[in-house]
Amino acid sequence: MHHNTTDRRVAAVSTIGLAAALIAVGGLLVACTSGAQTLPTAAGSSTTADSGASSVSTSTDVPTTTTDVATTSSVEDTTTTVAPTTTTSTTTTTTEPPTTTTTIVVQGAIVKVANATKVPGGASKLSKLMAKYGFQMAEPTDAAGNEEFRDTTQIYCLPGSEAVAGSIGILLDGVPVNYMPTPAPITDATAGLGDASVLVMLGKDLAGKTPPRLKT
Question: How far apart are CA 71 and CA 86, in angstroms?
Fold first, then answer.
């Protein structure tokens, strides 16, 4: 009987002790739960600590700066200077007198024919044909120097005799006319001209022939 009573007492004490322990643990849990604190953080942020778990909510407001950039458009005026154009007129002197004769002129100059071929009497024949046409003729002669022999006929004249020389050129079917060279390419050179101011250098193209326009 004594032992049973003792056992009951021991069990009751143990039960009371266990209950007290549970109450203590529960109180600690309540204390921990109610002790959750909200910690202030940097501007715009808050940190909450609850039961050992940390939840961080961060909100950062970044100010927006708007910069208006003014664009200046610079227009550059460009002035272009154009150099004046200078026209240089070059005068070319030619030994060929202008042929403006349309009317045959037979008076106003004495004409001499020089034979620049190996055709005998060629200059004499042409001189006679021209005399019949109306030209004033000097005695025929022979060519000399670098024009002793010519393939084509050439007419030379002194200034003032262009009209007569041009007329002869027309009658001889387009023979060219140039001013008289010095010395004249004939026997006795320029002295051999005498009073003649027009010289016909008879070439192989017309030697011994009768030009159609000189027929009378």
Answer: 46
Please state, in angstroms and rounded to a whole number, the distance separating the CA atoms of residues 13 and 16: 5
pLDDT for residue 103: 87
- What is the residue type of 155? I
Q: How many CB atoms lie within 10 A of CB 164?
A: 25
**∠ CA 107-171-92, rounded to 5°:** 85
C-alpha 71/C-alpha 94 separation (Å) is 70
123, containing H or E segment: helix 122-133
CB contact at 8 A, 123 and 115: yes
> Are the C-beta atoms of residues 179 and 91 closer than 8 Å to each other?
no
Would you state the pLDDT for residue 28?
A: 52
The list of the chain residues with pLDDT below 50 reads: 1-2, 10, 13, 30-78, 82-94
What pLDDT is recorded for position 92?
A: 37
- In the numeric block, which tokens belong to residue 139? 């005695």
Residues 6+ apart with CB under 8 A from 100: 166
- What letter would DSSP give residue 153? -
In order of their start, the domains of the chain are 110-214 (3.30.70.2390)
Burial track 184-203 (b if 16+ CB lie within 10 A, e otherwise): bbbeeeeebbeebbbbbbbb
State whether the Cα torsion 45-48-53-57 is positive or negative: negative
Closest CA to 213 of 179, 175, 158, 178: 175
At 196, which amino acid appears? A
Q: What is the pLDDT of residue 19?
A: 58
